[in-house]
Each structure stands twice: as structure tokens, then as C-alpha cells.
């Protein structure tokens, strides 16, 4: 196990380390622009941290992510945890509606591609036109695999005892790291609720806000929407099976 631990630790090192190189240098990468991507990555990291803290403070589990709930359900053989999923999606919808309400003037005066990007993800290369389906699926799968795999590691008794009450901090930094290293091609949904809920809101927001500009409608990109749902769920399922039998 010690030899395997060195193998996996070094693999994560390269994946997240050299991943930054691709993110800031690769063609059409979202991070290949001055400043903005760092703000986005840290913003999402803090969003996860405070969302988890609120959930835990109210007696919840702090999943906030259907892929995490699927992982936990499989690992613990407890199907009741899947009941979290519809509420995660509804929470994402509600949060986006509030955000849109306070930004309504900005929405009406902003390019629709930018508005959609403030709701849900879309890839640098399209699934079929650019023949990037495998790449897009892989980015979301690997990103979620790293997320949930390391959450499982953080939850292990050895690590949990050493970090104690600071357990949410490593997850926060992990989300930031994934954003910087593995998020620049697909926008790193790595969470079906985070993508699907706001995408539904965008669908209606576009229609309502653009009554006088119907010729500008771009749609919610439903042809891509299944990728950030299926890939994270598959990754969560895989980690759940591994953790159940190997006990990470």
C-alpha cells in the first residue's frame, strides 16, 4: 500500500501541477486570459466552503453535489442519501434565481454568451462539431474523480484526525486547484446540480429578458447539458465502489 500511495500521490501531483500549464497555455483554454480565471477558481472554492459550512451547521451532510451523494450512498450502501439530490438541484435553481433577480439590469445589457456562462458550463470544443465528446466527458470525469477521490481521502480516519475542525479547508483548496488545472476546457461543472439547476434557470431567463431581441437567443446548450451530469455521476459511482471495497 505504501508503494501504491507514492504512485497515486505523484500522479495527482502531475495531474494538478502540469494541468495548470495546459490551462494557461493551451489553445482555446478558458484560463488563457489575464486574471479572470484565478478569480473564478477561488470564487468557486469559497462558494463550496461556505455552502458546506451552512449545510453542516443546519444538521446536513454538506454534500451539495449529486456525485458526492451517489458516492456516499454506494460506499455506505445507504440509498436514502440519494434523497439529497432533488433538493440540491432545487437549491441550485433557487440560488440562481436570487442571483438573477439582483443582476437583472446587467443581464438585459450583457451578451447572452456571457450571461449563459454565469449560469452553466459549456466546452471550449463542441461534442460533435469539433469531435471533442470523449475529451469533454473525460475532463468532467477526471475532475470529479479527483474531487471525490480526495474527499474520500480527507474523510479517512488518519487524515480526519490530523486536520480536525479544518476539514472543509482542504476541500476548498482542492476545488480551487481543480479549477486551475482541470477546469479550463469544460468549465469544470464536476457537480450535476451546479450545472443543471442554473441551466434550467437560464433557459427561462433568456426568454423573459430578451423579448425584444428574440433574434439573439442562443439557447441553454441542451445538447451538451448531459455531459456535466453523466460524467460526474459515473465518477462518483466509481469512487464509491472502490472506497467500499478498498476502504480509502
From TrEMBL:
**Nucleotide-binding: present as a keyword of the record?**
no
Any keyword Membrane? yes
Give GO cellular component annotations, separated by semicolons. Answer: plasma membrane
> Which keywords label this protein?
Membrane, Transmembrane, Transmembrane helix, Transport
Q: What is its main location?
A: membrane
* Chain segments annotated as transmembrane: 6-25, 37-61, 81-102, 137-157, 163-190, 221-242
Report the GO molecular function annotations.
glycerol channel activity
Q: What is the topology of this protein in the membrane according to its UniProt annotation?
A: Multi-pass membrane protein
InterPro entries to which the protein is assigned, alphabetical: Aquaporin-like, MIP, MIP/Aquaporin, MIP_CS
SUPFAM superfamilies reported in the protein's UniProt record: Aquaporin-like
- Localized where? Membrane
Give the similarity note. Belongs to the MIP/aquaporin (TC 1.A.8) family.
Protein name, entry field: Aquaporin family protein
Organism annotation: Mycoplasmopsis mucosicanis
Amino acid at each position: 500500500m505504501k508503494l501504491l500511495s507514492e504512485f497515486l500521490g505523484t500522479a495527482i501531483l502531475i495531474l494538478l501541477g502540469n494541468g495548470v500549464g495546459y490551462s494557461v497555455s493551451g489553445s482555446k483554454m478558458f484560463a488563457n486570459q489575464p486574471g479572470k480565471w484565478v478569480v473564478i477558481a477561488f470564487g468557486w472554492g469559497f462558494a463550496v466552503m461556505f455552502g458546506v459550512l451552512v449545510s453542516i451547521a443546519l444538521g446536513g451532510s454538506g454534500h451539495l453535489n449529486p456525485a458526492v451523494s451517489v458516492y456516499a450512498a454506494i460506499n455506505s450502501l445507504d440509498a436514502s442519501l440519494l434523497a439529497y439530490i432533488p433538493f440540491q438541484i432545487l437549491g441550485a435553481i433557487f440560488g440562481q434565481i436570487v442571483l438573477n433577480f439582483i443582476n437583472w439590469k446587467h443581464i438585459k445589457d450583457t451578451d447572452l454568451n456571457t450571461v449563459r456562462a454565469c449560469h452553466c458550463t459549456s466546452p471550449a470544443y463542441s461534442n460533435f462539431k469539433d469531435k471533442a465528446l470523449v475529451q469533454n466527458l473525460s475532463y468532467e470525469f477526471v475532475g470529479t474523480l479527483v474531487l471525490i477521490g480526495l474527499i474520500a481521502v480527507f474523510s479517512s480516519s488518519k487524515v480526519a484526525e490530523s486536520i480536525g475542525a479544518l476539514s472543509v479547508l482542504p476541500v476548498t483548496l482542492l476545488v480551487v486547484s481543480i479549477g486551475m488545472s482541470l477546469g479550463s476546457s469544460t468549465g469544470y461543472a464536476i457537480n450535476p446540480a451546479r450545472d443543471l439547476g442554473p441551466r434550467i434557470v437560464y433557459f427561462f431567463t433568456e426568454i423573459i429578458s430578451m423579448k425584444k431581441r428574440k433574434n439573439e437567443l442562443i439557447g441553454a446548450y441542451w445538447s451538451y447539458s448531459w455531459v456535466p451530469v453523466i460524467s460526474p455521476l459515473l465518477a462518483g459511482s466509481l469512487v464509491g465502489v472502490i472506497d467500499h471495497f478498498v476502504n480509502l
